Each structure stands twice: as C-alpha cells, then as structure tokens.
Amino acid sequence: DGWVLTHMFLSGYAKLAKQVDELNKINVFPIADGDTGANMKVCLKLPVRNLLLTPTDSVLSVVSNLAADVLLNGQGNSGTILSHFFVSFAEEVRDCGVGHTESLTIDQVANCITRTGAKMQDAVPDPVEGTMVSVARDCCDLSAEGPFATLKDLLDAWTAKAKTELAKTPDQLEVNGVKVLEKAGVVDSGAQGFVYIIEGMHLASRNELPEASDINLFKTASIDADEGVGADIHVDHTVTDTAYQFCTEAVVLLKDGVDKKAVVDSITQLSSKEDIGDSVACVGAPAKQGGNMIKLHIHSNDPEKVFAHLKQFSREPILRKEKVEDMLEMRQLYHEVSALDLADAKFSIVGMCDIVLPPGLRDSELQTLPVFVVPSDTQEPIDIRFTNSNDTCAALNRQRHADTAIRYTTAASNPMQIKIEILAALAKRKPVLVVLFSTDKRVSALGRNCLAAIEMLTPEQQSMVKIVVHGWFMSEVLFLRSVIQSAQEGKPIDEAIKAVTHLADRTCCFASFSCSATVRKLVAWRPGLFPKDFAVKDGHYFTLGIEPKIREGPVLSDTQRAGMLFNLLGEAPDYATARDDFIERIKSSLKPGQRLEQVMIQCSGRPDTGHEFVKKMREAGVPLEDEPLVYSAGFMSVAMTAMGEMSLIYNILE
Q1: Pairing of β 408-412 and β 371-375
Q2: What percent of the chain is helix, strand and coil (3-state, nearest 5)?
Q3: Residue 295 is inside which H or E element, if any?
Q4: Where would you tag: which of 59, 136, 315, 475 has the fewest CB atoms within 10 A of its CB?
Q5: Interatomic CA distance for residues 505 and 501, integer angstroms
Q6: Is 598 in a helix, a strand, or coil?
Q7: In angstroms, rounded to a whole number, what is the distance separating the alpha carbons of residues 195 and 16?
Q8: What b/e string do you get for 554-575 counting C-beta neighbours within 10 Å, with b at 16 or more?
Q9: How confident is the model at residue 232 (pLDDT cuts 50, 70, 90)?
C-alpha cells in the first residue's frame, strides 16, 4: 500500500544520503564537477520528507505526489534523470488500472518497474551507454525474474541485477573512443547512486538499514557524519571536459496545448542553430497546481538565453524554477587543493568566514561565527555554516512566487556559541583577531554578543584577543580577505588591523543591484536610510552603495557609514541598464593611475550574471589589478536579496 511504498522510498533515500561524498568523488562524466551525490540527494530529500508529512494508504497518491516534487527538486544531470525514473514510475502506476484503489500486488509493482525501465531511454535526447540511463533501463527489466512471492523476493532480484549492470559501466562508456570510466578507475557515479537507492530498499526489507531512522536525514543544515566513505578512492578526474560553463535548469508550468516534446524539439533546434549547449535532459509530469510542467536541464554558456527561450512555453510570467551553477568553478573547488596557506600566520582569525568568503578562500584554520536564518513556516533556526548551494537555490526559487514565498529573519549566535569559536582559535596558541562590522549593541547583535563572549574568558585569554571593527555592513568579505592576506604574509596582528582600518576609512567600495521587491523590503526595514518621499517603481532596478572613489577628508563615523548603506546611486528600468550605467560610473570616477583590485561579485543564485558583469567591465576598459572573484552569496542571500541580484565589493588601488 501507500505507506509501505513510502517506506521503500525513504529507505532508498537513506542509503543514498549516506553515500553522497563517495558519489561526488567518483563523478567523472559528463564533467567531473563533484556534485552527482549532492544532486541525487536533493532530488529525493524534500519529496520523501513530504511523503512522511502527508501519510496516505493510496499508492497512486504517493507516486503522484513524489513525481511532482522530484521534478521540482531534481538538480543536475543526475538529479534530472533520477526524477525521470520516478515520474515514469508514477505514470505506470496510474496506467496500471489502479484507479482509486490503495494497493498493488507484488507482480504489479514488478511490471511497473519493468515498464519504467523501458522509458528511461527517453530521459535524454541522446542516451549514452554506461550511465544511469542504461543501467536503470536494463536492471529494471524484471520480466524474466518473476513471479515473486514477496516484496523481499522482488528486491533481492532487482538488487542483484542492478549490481550486475553497474559493473558493466567502465567497459561501456566511451567518449571520443576512450573508455573514460575505466581510465578513471570508477563506475558511473549516477548509476552507482541509482543502485544505492535500490540497495537501500533491499536492506530495509531485511531490517538491515539503521540509516533509515537517522534524525538528521532531512535537516536543512547539519554536519554529516564522516564515515570515511570514499577516502581511499583514487580517481583521475581529467578524463572528461566541457565546452560549456554553466549547469542550467528550469521548471516550466506549461501553457495549455504545450507538451514536453514541443519544448525539447525547440531547445534542440535552438542549440543546433546557435550552439546554446549540450547534455540536454527533460522530464515532464502533472503539476500540483493543475496542468503539466517540465524540467529542462542543459549545459550552456548563456543561461539567460535559455530562460528567455523557455518563457514562451510558460503560463506564468516567470519560470517556476531557475538554477545556474558554475561547473568549472565546482570542478576546481572539489578536486584542487586549497590555495590558502596559513602556515606562517602569526595570529588566528575569527569572523563570518564560511558565511561570506568565496569557497576558494575558506579554510578549516578560520573560525566562523554562527549566524542563523529562521524561516517563518518552521521557526527552526538554520545554521548558515552548514547550508550548501542546493539549499540556497531551492529557497531563492521558493521566494520568487507568491504561493510559496515565506518570511525569513536572521538571528545572531549567542555569547556561549561565540565563546566556543574563540576558544577554538585560542587553541592554536596564537593571538586571535575577531573581524566585526560593529560592536554597537544598538546596531549589531553579533557584535554585542561577541563582547559578552570575550568577557566570559579568563584574563589571560582576553589579553590574547583583539577586535577590528570596519563599520560597513554587508561588506565583511573584503576585510576578511585583507586579514587573511596579512596572515598569509606572516604580518603581526597590529599590521593586519592597520590594513583593515585603511580599507574601511578610505578605499573600500561596494554596490548592490536590487529589484523593486527587494528595495521595498529594505525601505520597510530601515525607512530612515532612504529619502522621505522615496518611490519604488515596479520592475525597476536600483543601484545602492557608496561612490566608486577614494574617500578623502575626515574619516566617516560608524553612524555616517550606516547612513550610506542604502545610498541610491542609480535607478534603471532593467538590470542590464543599471549594470551598464554603474560600470560607466566606475570608469568616469577613477582618477588616472587608479584601478580596482580584490573585486568580489556575490551572486544570488545566478553566477552567470556576475561573469557577464566582469566581461562588460573589461569591454568598457575598467582597469583591473587582478582577476575578479565571482561566487554565489550563500544562504544569507535568501533573507537579504532575491534570485538574480548581485553585489560588487572592491578596493580602489592608487
């Protein structure tokens, strides 16, 4: 019945969730970007949780609800193909003559699995042997295995066949005549994840899956137990490459009369004409809102063109979901050793490190002050330190639609939590520098609680801790980067403070590009920081921040800096105009010999907009001292921004 089926799906998810690190590590094809396990996990995480929250005995209700949810949540090539399996399974159950009955016989389940396997060939336009598509297709053919006396017998046979097909993948998958899995020394990661799901169901039928009762299975932000899975696996990740930078996905609620085939044919035609991308995968299913929806996955260099093209098929003015990930950055971060070397550091660093720093500047030597985001629906504080890009993307997309948007608030860590991080830094037997925006209790709860935490230390410990306050809210990353640079160069703590002070007083600059909805929230939050009669026009984009120039004259006070937080630098009818206007403003404001350095562009869900901004700056002739860093802003952006927005933080160098 539906409840047994729910527990089968739960068991499959539980086994998969414990193997995420291994699956990420053996990810080779189509690009070694280290996200197969994460994408397959996020495909099932919320859908399975939703089944547990809305229990039913109806098999048809279970598979239909799961199908709608996996289509929305599946990400990446592997997640999209996995969602195709569950959507197809729901179709087969629906066509099985179940109607409104609540249960299936064991042989009916086996027949549905077999027919679902036959549909896996349709998951992608050009299926490749030796991948999840071929393994699912072949292992699901149970026509010669039955009849089955029990569900356990069915799962015994399915698991054995799945493992047999998985073992064939190194010999099957060829790219340009090269057996890339065999050369890398692995099986296909997506196929392995699919087999883990089947194995999880099988183990649960034997009462051998304790993972299914893990209380952390569905937490938004939790520290996964490190069981050393995959630690001894050595993989050659150089065997594949891609001509496209961005993993691009969209979910579209289709207009009446439009089907999946029409969308795929249109994208295929566009791709052949304009070379818009490859690795196309598409899944269609009934939408919970009524009608039909599709999920499209493609690797592209122009996500905006993909989204714009898909809008012609959407019955809503905006797409139900957008997702863009920089695959080249992901591959570099996952497989290359961190360039951060703090071996010569004369002091330890505490701040909002893992929350605001680009991934390439994060390091276990840095201590991160906890900050929490609290969603209004659950009221469960989410520790931002342990969220990932999938969590952020899902939340940002949820906020784009009135029927799913909720309110998020932020909460600072308490003094005891901060004390723990400071003690961890002191354990390195070096002086400690804490980087803060403010210690004024009227302005910053984090600063206030940090002072309280330091008071809880012994006098000897207190003498080892110093605080540097920069005064620029939401620009923490530039000052942390400066402190890290001082530490890497072996400079003493006082020189690091001096460098931060000069940055904060004279040369740091920032600007954010915000849509009208975000600006309305900011006006409601801090009305005193905007002009009295400030009007927010629908559809407009606003550039907020400080002038792109070195500040001369008296040093600004913290109050003056707070007053400049939402200083209006420009307003435009669209983002592209706002961007181009500000780039021209930067260029005209710089004096001869001045240039930008340590440029960091934080993007809310759309890293392609940041890379386009860098491209436009270069085309306009803006002088850049070093390579800008473009990265996703992280889960804090859910509370502070909207999908597609970005902020620019930089230093002006004489």
Answers
A1: antiparallel
A2: 45, 15, 35
A3: strand 292-300
A4: 315
A5: 6
A6: strand
A7: 9
A8: eebebeebbebbbeebbbbeeb
A9: low
**257-308: per-residue pLDDT in tens?**
999 999 999 998 888 888 888 888 888 888 878 889 999 989 999 999 999 9
CA nearest neighbour of 545 among 645, 442, 408: 645
CA atoms of 354 and 366, how far apart (whole Å): 8
SS (H, E, C) 256-271: CCCCHHHHHHHHHHHH
| Beta strand 382-383 pairing with 371-375 | antiparallel
Helices assigned H by DSSP within 206-302: 260-274
- Closest of 247, 325, 399, 387 to residue 610, by C-alpha: 325
Burial tier of 16 (Cβ tally within 10 Å: 0-12, 13-18, 19+) = buried
Spatial CA neighbour of 451 closest among 374, 559, 369, 367: 369
- Residue in 355, 336, 305, 249 with CA at minimum distance from that of residue 602: 355
Half-sphere exposure of 376 (CA within 13 A, CB side): 10
CB atoms within 10 A of CB 24: 22
Question: Closest Cα partner for 369 from 307, 447, 440?
Answer: 447
Closest alpha carbon to 501 in 534, 524, 468 = 468
What is the separation, in whole angstroms, between the first and last Cα of the chain?
Answer: 71
Cα(218)–Cα(73) distance, integer angstroms: 14
3-state secondary structure of 537: coil
**Which run of H or of E encompasses 629?**
strand 629-632
How would you classify residue 228: left for phi > 0, otherwise alpha for psi between -120 and 50, otherwise beta?
left
Mean pLDDT, rounded, of the chain:
88
- At 44 the three-state DSSP class reads helix
**Phi/psi at 300 (5° precision):** -145, 160
Helix ranges restricted to H, 489-547: 493-502, 516-525
pTM above 0.90, yes or no: no
Contact in structure between 518 and 541 (CB atoms under 8 Å): no
Residues 370-384: tens digit of each pLDDT: 999 999 988 888 999
